[in-house]
Amino acid sequence: MVFEHKSEREFYRVPKLQGAPPPVHFVDVFSTAEQGVPNPLTGSMFLLEHADTKEPAPHYDYDESGVVIKGTLVIEDEKGNKATLEKGDTFFVHRGSDITFSTPKFALAYKVASRTKMGH
Length: 120
Prior knowledge:
The chain starts with 7 loop residues before the first helix and ends in a 7-residue tail after the last strand. The protein is mainly beta. The chain has one helix spanning about 10, and strands at about 25-30, 40-50, 65-75, 80-85, 90-95, 100, 105-115. Strands 1, 2, 3, 4, 5, 6 and 7 form a 7-stranded antiparallel beta sheet that branches. About 20% of the residues are buried. A hairpin with a 4-residue loop joins strand 3 (about 65-75) and strand 4 (about 80-85). It has a single domain (about 25-115), classed as Jelly Rolls, CATH 2.60.120. It comes from Hypoxylon rubiginosum.
């Protein structure tokens, strides 16, 4: 297979992530097809809705970069560094970080991570 693609309609379908807190919607869109390669890459859609409570910060054991497509995404790390990102803003999460995501209303982002597709 040379390349894959999704229509805009397919790209924006972001289901609720099973086992995650209620405001988290997430889906892997594209991923390295071959299992066991040394540097896998996975692209994902991330939709976050507003919540009044903060969930524990997940630990990242892989690097991840993303771009906010719509809404406002607030990112905070374990050291208290915080950024409020708007449409078109990009971010990079370094492996080893504990990151908290929040939003005043909602945020939609496309993220790419150095990991295999969830479930593999």
